[in-house]
Amino acid sequence: MTRGNGESRTQKLDTNAQNGRTGRGCLRIQHSGLSMLLFAYAMCSHAAVWTTSGYTGFVPEKPELENVSVSPDGIVTLAPRSVEKATLDESSVWAITEAPGRRVYVGTGNCGRVYLLQPGANPRVVFDADAGQVLCLTTDRQGNVYFVTSPGGIVYRMAPTGNPVQLCSTGEEYVFDILSGPSGELYCATGINGRLYHIPPSGKPEVVFVAAQAHLTALAWLVEGKELLVGTSPGGIVYRLQFQPGKARPEASVLYDTPKDEVRALAVAGSGLVAIAANPDEAGESAAGVFCVTTDGALRWNWTCPESTVFDLLYRSGHLLVATGTNGIIFELDSLGHAALLRKVPAQSVVCLEPGAEAVLCGTIGPCHVYALGQDFASEGYIIAGPHDCAGPARFGRLSVRSTVPAGTALLFDTRSGDAEEPDSTWTEWQETSEFVRSPSGRFVQWRARLYSNFPALTPRLQQIDLYYCIPNRPPLITKFDVTVVNLADARAGKADPVRSLSWELSDPDSDSLALEVLFSRDDYTGRWQTLAKDLAGTGYELDTRMLPDGWCRFKLVAS
Fold it and tell me: What pTM was estimated for this model as a whole?
């Protein structure tokens, strides 16, 4: 219960109102804003539920999870199994390609090295430039591997059983992407002069296209050998180059002009749709994203990447994998652009994706790893919700879960609580819970779901979590209690309206419905209060002063 009784100025009003009696009387009503008595009562507790469901519910701004996927409709499952292929003492993994015989080549920086990864063997350096970057690699149909060093733009070829040999020099500062053609030719996207080079098997480079932009950043075949897509920066334009028999240079047109600064990667679906990874410039306020367009340049959908950069794209089984700098997260977009969190790897950024014979290969920075993502589910994983503010010291009750748990799998839950906004040493330890939360009272609470499976093709599925709690109910807040003022001249002339309006302003911090009661008392310090009206709602009450006794009266508003 709270009480406000601040004193301020008082007005004495005279009127000829009968006031419920015969003859002339004098009615004086004390009017003093909050000098009237205000009472607010609270119930003993306020029940609430913290519900987590849907994609945005399970994937907050900074998700905390391991070996867990979240589908676009918010179903939590175990993620595809991840196997670490290599840990490299480099600053970055820029590109990966897989050649026949399960030979995986990795281009790195800042020492300009190429590594060979083979089953059952440690990573082996097959090329070392001592400085610079190997930003791109590709493999042709004969199993030859090509890579380019930057700066300098020197192209190397490595036969399946040989060592790297220099094929040619483009003379350009950077080569951002390299792509092989059906006849063993190569195409190199370069910067800083915006040139596209055609390199035949003989190794003599030839410029076949020059863009208005400084950098050609990404290449992809729309129709192999006939139509080539070229991404650029700045400007974020995707060009479409059509090669005609007998013509040395292709015909160029714009497929799509993105609203971003850089086209970082291109991917073409079997249906002909083109996915474009685009990033803003460093000073831009817009976010990175993916644009999906048709072959005639019509936009189908676009997706905004949370927080960071989009590095690479890869179509797999009709879905688009997106490598990002968002805390090592790989997203998966469906045919309508709806995002799933496919998995999170222990790295700052996933920089490149490559389709392997048995798994998708991905390279990371911070630290520098190569992972293989299989089709089977991981054997265990977890997801942790962000701390929930109960807005007061709460007592916790039932934990209700909507889930599917096949035989051979398990889904377990833990909770912890504390009074600091971010979990620290003052928080309680994790405590396993089944139906009722065992964590002690606290303002903040957090849950953790642990998923297990004994079979690679099975996973539990979590759809919704409801955590019930109650906090001491807070009283309503009355901020104003007032009575209308009569005209003094009318009062002296006996013409004052006997009906006066009581008005108030109040709110409830718990959004409870309120019951209101107005009482009055003779101002004779007896303390005897009588009810004028109860079970009121709204913000006012019309008072007929003729129902009151003569003399000074005090009023009290009670909200509960």
Answer: 0.79
